[in-house]
Amino acid sequence: MNSLLLSSSLCLSPSSISQFPFYRQTQPNNLHTNHHNQQCYYLHYPSLAHPFISHKSLQIRRSIGETISPNEGAIPVMEFEDFFEKDWSFLDSDDLISSQDYNHKLNRIIASGEIENSSRVMVSAAAEGFVDQLVESSPCNLLLVVHDSLFVLAGIKEKYDKVKCWQGELIYVPEKWAPLDVVFLYFLPAIPFTLDQVLAAVGKHCSPGARLVISHPQGRGGLEQQRKQYSDVIVSDLPEKPALQEAASNHFFDLVEFVDDPGFYLAVLKLNNAG
Question: Listed GO cellular component terms (predicted)?
Fold first, then answer.
């Protein structure tokens, strides 16, 4: 059986299991929890095409860093005849990774977060290359990566065991990691919610003075090229400055930096004390 063992690492949103296109449950759904009421799912994939997870087994836990004891009873096991995910590979293409200009832009995005050793940081819909640079350049107290893709999160977790990973939509991230000091919305056009919904959800998890960074290292020009090939991933646009200022004001953020060049987009919001 092709599988991937991902130990105590990957949090799924409560609804994510039922959203897989094909699955059948091979045991009764007797879900047992540990003493912290955190759930654990074991998923077994008969066939997976993604290169870095073949010939391993995938253990997906909703708790991070928790160990499930053998005497806790039956845990649901699900087998997938097919497993489909959106293709996020364009965020880490070889042409981008090898580009000095691209890596300089990633460093500029990271620097705009003003991360300190004590910072609690969340990254949404990020490229693995961005997480690599973030881990290497900016040590912090907590790094949480939120992504729709199990494959992307598995790859990140294999490299960085201390990084927290949560699979699901950004607006449903639990409050257990709050308060956050820095939030990177690395690829906002892939988030299927309005800007108001995103800022409202993120703002609830942020500390006063927290910085929220919206970016695209290739700007609007790059986004439009990506949209032609990856329309299932890209569901919205990068916000224009007036719309961003209005939405930010509605949710107690101030716009402190804005760059909208054809080849680079960066918007930095700061949560004011009124929030």
Answer: chloroplast
Tokens of 42: 């074991």
Helices (H), the chain: 94-97, 100-111, 128-137, 150-159, 195-204, 219-229, 241-250
The H helix count followed by the E strand count for the chain is 7, 12
Let me know if residue 243 belongs to a domain: yes
Reference 215, options 120, 133, 156; nearest CA is 133
pLDDT tens digits for range 235-258: 899 999 999 999 999 999 999 999
Is there a contact between 238 and 214 (Cβ–Cβ < 8 Å)?
yes
Give the residues across from 213 on adjacent strands.
Answer: 184, 268
pLDDT of residue 151: 87
Question: 163, 156 in Cβ contact below 8 A?
Answer: yes
- Beta-bridged to residue 53, according to DSSP, are none
Per the confidence metrics, is the pTM higher than 0.90?
no
Give the orientation angle of helix 150-159 with respect to helix 128-137, to 10 degrees: 30
Provide the domain count of the chain. Answer: 1
In a domain, 205, yes or no: yes
Distance CA 138, CA 119 (A): 10
Q: What is the CATH number of the domain that holds 162?
A: 3.40.50.150
Q: Coil, strand, or helix at residue 145?
A: strand
